[in-house]
Specification:
With 248 residues, the chain is of the alpha+beta class. It contains 9 helices and 10 strands.
Amino acid sequence: MSGHSKWHNIKLRKGKVDAQRGALFTKLSKEIILAAKSGSPDPEANYRLKMAVEKARANNMPQENIKRAIARVTGGAGEKEIQEIRYEGYGPHGVAVVVDAATDNRNRTAGELRFLFVKHGGAFGETGSVGWIFEPVGVLEVDPEQRSEEGLTEAALVDGVIDLEYGHPAEIYTDPAQLAAARAALEKAGLQISGAFLGMRARQKTELNGPALSDALNFLELLDDHEDVQRVFSNLDASEAALEALAT
């Protein structure tokens, strides 16, 4: 495993989850708005929107909140426009970072994110400054249940799947265009999909341990907790031993 998956797992082990339901609902609402803007306001005709609505329901977001988010796109709410913006830069110890944000004030968001990067010894870059390190992928979060890494790998041998990172949850990477088809095939094979989204995967990794790893993880967590940040992708890598040392 590496980067996004390992960071997610270490957060869970340390109990670092979204503490405020309201903040989580805000992020979920923004993803629904962006998804609805990208296509049809009907989840059955817009797969990104369908995934966003499923995630919202899985997190017990009220149906009224979901309807209100979709209404912002169809003209039913009359609020500020939410824009989808990608930021790039280097975090502590040279870790490459891509941030997907959703905001109604891009200048404010850029300023706040720039401050976080600089404060923690990083550098806020221009578009493309680190993007070349990453490739677009579909991401399926899967509960491996009682399967070993070998068993999960065997179950994941379906069209569209390009790689797998074992963990709890595991992450299965797909061709972006085949995310929906791969998900359907994996569910038919008996796997439990807990999340599905279009993301980024690093082609080159930066491995850290000890205090440097702690610095990087804390920085990524601060980014993830920002109210306008939807997803954070990095090329951070670490051994299981290094992560376990931080979790104790």
